[in-house]
Design goal:
Helices cover 8% and strands 42% of the residues. By secondary structure, it is mainly beta. β4 and β5 form a beta hairpin.
């Protein structure tokens, strides 16, 4: 199986990390019909919350957007987290 992943990310000096990754299989079997229904999910991870993750299932790929506090910097305010997590825009099909 061929899997293509596209990832971008960045980290502040205080280790606050932002990342976005999308995965697609060449055979297209990564779509929602091949697994439990997902759609668009927003999750909070850790106690106290150390990360917020948005998962978006498209017909032929899945994308993850994550804001994570990995060091001394706290998570940004909710408005800033949501601005990043809601920034994903699909403009076409994956290209092989």
């Amino acid at each position: 199986m061929e899997l293509r992943t596209h990832t971008v990310g960045g980290k502040t000096p205080g280790r606050l990390a932002f990342s976005a990754s999308c995965m697609a299989r060449r055979d297209g079997k990564l779509g929602p019909e091949r697994r439990a229904p997902g759609g668009d999910r927003l999750e909070v991870k850790g106690t106290p919350p150390a990360a917020h993750q948005r998962t978006v299932d498209f017909e032929d790929m899945t994308c993850f957007l994550i804001v994570e506090a990995q060091g001394p910097d706290p998570l940004p305010p909710e408005a800033d987290r949501l601005r990043f997590l809601q920034s994903l825009k699909r403009t076409g099909k994956p290209v092989w």
